[in-house]
From TrEMBL:
Lineage: superkingdom: Bacteria
MF GO annotations: DNA binding; DNA-binding transcription factor activity
Family: Belongs to the LysR transcriptional regulatory family.
Protein name (record): LysR family transcriptional regulator
Protein's organism: Streptomyces alboflavus
Residue intervals of the LysR substrate-binding domain: 31-237
GO CC entries: protein-DNA complex
Keywords: DNA-binding, Transcription, Transcription regulation
UniProt keyword annotation of Transcription present: yes
InterPro entries tied to this protein: LysR_subst-bd
Pfam families: LysR_substrate (PF03466)
Length: 246
């Protein structure tokens, strides 16, 4: 391609993409998509973008009922695999051959949840290396090991092992165990906004990688309702200027 051709392509490609999206949305409305769409969520789902996404989808597909279902640590992907839900907002990483990772809706910093009175409770930030003497938690059930290891690392950056104590199955169980002094846990930053409680303090951990929440679905099985929902998520992200952040 010539330099002039490349320049024209770069200038026209975004316009072409927007036209394709507009045509797809018009087809969704013309088809009268109906039925039921199951949307799962771990934690706070798509955070502040959840309501705009659902509102726009209902406007575009008024005949399609959205049913929300919470998933838990112990089996974060099971409901999606079983077909109990069609779409899932969940924390990455998800590296499963039968699942497709779609648009990222939230990018979050990380914090440490500690009980009130803990030696770190008064700190303004922490390095993960400082946590070598603490007790974290194991996960019950069938959560992928790589997924839990990302969110609750088993070692510090220098390789020092971090003890893992009791296994947890749900987020509320985790928070209760933290509050009662059974251990501490890394969490995503939005937890302080959506799950704040008076007996738990959240201290930023400045050297853990950010965590993403994305829309995930079964590979090759979205259907017209799922395709319309994916487009809606992408359009809300475009309007918002990208993923929400914490």
């Amino acid at each position: 391609m010539s330099p002039l051709g490349r320049q024209l392509y770069d200038e026209l490609a975004p316009l072409h993409h927007r036209m394709e999206e507009a045509v797809a949305r018009a087809k969704d409305q013309a088809r009268g998509i109906d039925g039921e769409l199951g949307v799962g969520f771990l934690g706070s789902g798509a955070g502040s973008l959840t309501q705009p996404i659902l509102k726009l989808f209902r406007e575009r597909c008024p005949g399609c009922e959205v049913r929300m279902r919470e998933t838990q640590f112990q089996d974060p992907l099971g409901a999606l695999r079983a077909g109990d839900i069609d779409m899932l907002f969940t924390c990455l990483p998800v590296a499963e051959p039968d699942l497709t990772v779609g648009p990222v809706v939230i990018t979050e910093h990380r914090a440490l949840a500690v009980p009130v009175g803990h030696r770190f409770a008064g700190r303004t930030s922490l390095s993960f290396e400082e946590l070598a003497g603490e007790t974290f938690f194991r996960v019950a059930g069938g959560a992928p090991a790589y997924w839990w290891d990302f969110h609750v690392p088993p070692r510090t950056p220098s390789g020092r092992e971090i003890r893992r104590g009791q296994a947890v199955a749900t987020f509320q169980e985790l928070m209760t165990l933290v509050a009662t002094g059974q251990g501490v846990s890394p969490v995503i930053a939005s937890v302080e906004t959506y799950y704040s409680r008076p007996d738990v303090v959240f201290v930023p951990v400045h050297d853990l990688p950010t965590a993403d929440v994305a829309l995930v679905w079964r590979t090759g099985s979205t259907g017209s309702r799922g395709d319309a929902f994916i487009r809606t998520v992408r359009d809300v992200l475009a309007t918002n200027g990208g993923p929400a952040s914490f």
